[in-house]
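Problem statement: downstream parser choked on a complex file, so we are re-checking the raw output for the nicotinamide-adenine-dinucleotide run. The parser issue turned out to be on our end (a line-ending mismatch), but while we're here, posting the original submission so the record is complete.
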Amino acid sequence: MLFDKLTTYDHEQVLFCNDNATGLRAIIAIHNTTLGPSLGGIRMWNYASDEEALTDVLRLSRGMTLKSSAAGLNLGGGKAVIIGDARTQKSEALIRRMGKFVNNLGGKYIAAEDVGMTERDMIDVRAETPHVTGLPEFAGGSGNPSPITAYGVYVGMKAAMKHQTGSDSMEGKRVIVQGAGSVGRGLIELLAKEGAEILVYDIYQPSLDAVAKAHKVTIISAEEVYTTQADVYAPCALGGTVNPDTISQLNCSIVAGAANNQLLDEVRDGQALIDRGIIYAPDFVINAGGVINIIQEVEGVAYSKERALSMCDRIYDTTLNILKTADSSGITPHEAALKIAQARIDAIGHNRLFM
Ligand code: NAD
């Protein structure tokens, strides 16, 4: 039963970590290390069950393999989850114990920040292992990746617009942004600069107040996110929002956003979007800015924001290429992106056979 889950996406290694003294219960999943050490964030979340935590870490680690490969980075895919409430159960001792588990993997897994973790927590992980990234800039790291992720989503969205209309201009285009968090805010700023019409929804009122103060945006309701006529729907909150229920309501021609695992079912929902004439810019391709930002830390070079942004520019051509391949091969953009990411892994894996 357990190994069936590991064989579904061909995971290399999964480590269950337990420490009674600190209350740490965590899972580290190493999906694939063909291209390099597996890198991915540590997520701390109050999972309803151990099963749910395992499913999440397996899905997310596979996503990291695909993301790094499609972005042309020499990194594999990994992820870690800590089971617990980040607000009430997190302590320095627990995070440092986690750091020791990461250290024991000898660099096969490189940690970073994810939901429920902060840059400050990465400093605690760093106290126990050098195999951690996403440290604050004052500690020699690359800092908050969200503005770079937002930039990557923006260029991916422009590529999808180019594919659909022949022009990548977002001026006057109506974009619905779902989630005005770290990435959503950055995306809104870039779109506003280009003269897009922005409609936004967030469950957290202070986030809406902040964007409404900074930019000319229209605040819409939860239901209107899916039904309002727009050029682009940008999911920047949760995964799984593109599903049979929402696809039937969508009144847009492009889906392009930051959230991971946007399609509830990759095959079914990818095809349903095509059937409705909606272009999908694959999430793991256009939200790669975060890992692109971190690669400089892995390489051990001084952080340059300019270099991170210019590496993100490649997302434009990659997205265009994927959309063209999907059209010419009669497959979904998600399938085309998977093929391109997997082809690089297979080719480099083949080269590794030779000394
Ligand atoms: P965040 O926590 O800063 O922001 C998420 C926002 O979504 C919050 O303001 C929250 O209130 C809102 N939200 C939650 N549920 C919602 C709902 N049902 N409807 C509308 N809004 C809702 O997170 P973030 O860093 O901005 O990341 C956004 C998404 O992008 C996440 O799915 C994340 O996994 C993904 N992502 C982020 C990065 C990054 O660099 N931060 C990189 C890759 C992918």
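For whoever reads this later: The longest strand covers residues 24-32.
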